[in-house]
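Marked as duplicate of an earlier ticket. Keeping the data here for the record.
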Amino acid sequence: MPRETQGVTILGISLQHSRFDWLAGPEVQAKVEALSGERRCPRLESEIATRALVASPPDFVLSLTTKLRGMVADFVFWELETTFHGSFRREAEAEISQEDLLSVHGPAWLWSFAREYVADVTRRANIGPGVMLPPVNFQARAGT
């Protein structure tokens, strides 16, 4: 069922692509075991990309792709890539501008789904209690 907020209707959000690779075989795990101190602390590298797929007012389709790598030192243990698509309709009198829909609000709505998906997949893969991605300030990223 579509949801309307501030003159924008969210027509649907869907997972379009997902890939999870566990890359740490026994040889990598043995090398990590040999590390000491801070070099042994796990870290997460991430990339976020958004793009408008269809921008023909009043309907818009937006894509958000996340690429994550779980690492220890220079060793990549796992990679997760997801792409979510969101379909939106912006009414002429909407409080949200077309530019803000594509650069701030749309990505923020998609990010909440991506965060939940990443947490669930990594929890099911036994990566600790799962990876909870931090909130992203899309307004700051867009420079508005």
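See parent ticket for discussion. Residues 3-142 form a domain with the Bacterial Protein-export protein SecB fold (CATH 3.10.420.10).
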